[in-house]
Amino acid sequence: MHVEVDEPKCVSAGLCVMSAPDVFDQRDDDGVVILLESDPDAALDEEVREAAGLCPAAAIRLVEK
Questions:
Q1: Do 60 and 4 form a contact (C-beta atoms < 8 A)?
Q2: Among candidates 28, 24, 29, 30, which has minimal Cα distance to 44?
Q3: pLDDT, tens only, 2-55
Q4: CA-based angle 2:41:58, to the nearest 5?
Q5: Would you say the C-alpha torsion 8, 56, 5, 12 has a positive or negative sign?
Q6: How many Å apart are CA 30 and CA 27, to the nearest integer?
Q7: In angstroms, rounded to a whole number, what is the distance separating the alpha carbons of residues 55 and 60?
Q8: Are residues 24 and 65 in contact, defined by beta-carbon separation less than 8 angstroms?
Q9: CB count, 10 Å around CB of 1?
Q10: How far is 23 from 3, CA to CA, in rounded Å?
Q11: Residue 65 has pLDDT above 90, yes or no
Q12: Are 16 and 28 contacting, i.e. CB atoms less than 8 angstroms apart?
């Protein structure tokens, strides 16, 4: 799957980082999401789906390949 984030929508909750730390991080100054891997390994699919589902701002978009 391909992962996209909408940084302006991010509310810095950090749930994505807790769910999929290999794919998401947060900026130190304001906590906005940083996408570390836009095409993560399939082994991370479950974690990435969980992160997208938990995002309170719906700032994570998943595109199935």
A1: yes
A2: 24
A3: 999 999 999 999 999 999 999 999 999 999 999 999 999 999 999 999 999 999
A4: 40
A5: positive
A6: 6
A7: 7
A8: no
A9: 15
A10: 9
A11: no
A12: no
User: Six-digit token pair at 57?
Assistant: 């701002």
Q: Are 60 and 51 in contact (CB under 8 A)?
A: yes
Q: What does the alpha-carbon distance between residue 21 and residue 17 come to, in Å, rounded to a whole number?
A: 5
Neighbours of 15 (CB within 10 A): 19
The whole-angstrom separation of Cα 32 and Cα 4 is 14
For residues 12 and 31, the answer to whether their CB atoms sit within 8 Å is yes
Statement: the pTM of the whole predicted model exceeds 0.85: yes
Q: How far is CA 19 from the centre of its chain?
A: 8
Contact assessment for residue 15 and residue 54, using Cβ atoms and an 8 Å cutoff: yes
The distance of Cα 28 from the centroid of its chain, to the nearest Å, equals: 16
